[in-house]
Specification:
about 150 residues; OB fold (Dihydrolipoamide Acetyltransferase, E2P); 2 domains; five-stranded antiparallel β-sheet
Length: about 150
């Protein structure tokens, strides 16, 4: 009888160990973001100009840091302290085609090198607090938001 109990003990211990490994692997994996679906569920947005600071690749898009310049339009729902501020860095998530456009804009020197990496874009926030690029980013025409 003691041999059976030992066998059950080791079998139960083995199952617990496997379950623990499974939980640890799932917990350590980054969240699987469906950027397109999350971007469709935004509840407020703004259109603005900014300068690209960093584009970091992700599985289904990229994470973008921009230095905010000036907003052109704000949807309803912003409290005064939530309005994007000039000179602040903000993080946005973008879909693959938007990431490609960001990289081209960041690399393009053109006839106005001082505008390299500057973009006009629309961003939206979903209920989780993440901001998503909603429009194809493009270089601004002239200074500020001219050409929107």
């Amino acid at each position: 009888m003691e041999g059976r109990q030992r066998l059950r003990f080791w079998a139960l211990l083995g199952l617990l160990l496997l379950a623990g490994i499974d939980v640890a692997v799932r917990w350590l994996q980054p969240p699987n973001l469906d950027l397109a679906a999350e971007a469709r569920s935004t509840y407020r947005n703004y259109t603005a100009t900014a300068q690209i600071q960093q584009v970091e690749g992700m599985a289904r898009g990229c994470k973008v840091t921009v230095k905010f310049h000036e907003w052109h339009s704000l949807s309803p729902g912003f409290k005064l302290h939530e309005i994007p501020q000039k000179g602040q860095n903000y993080t946005l998530y973008a879909q693959p085609e938007q990431c490609a456009a960001l990289e081209v804009i960041q690399a393009e020197k053109g006839s106005r090198p001082e505008l390299t990496g500057h973009i006009v874009y629309t961003a939206g926030e979903n209920r989780s607090g993440r901001w998503y690029m909603l429009s194809e980013p493009r270089p601004p025409l002239g200074c500020g938001v001219v050409g929107l």
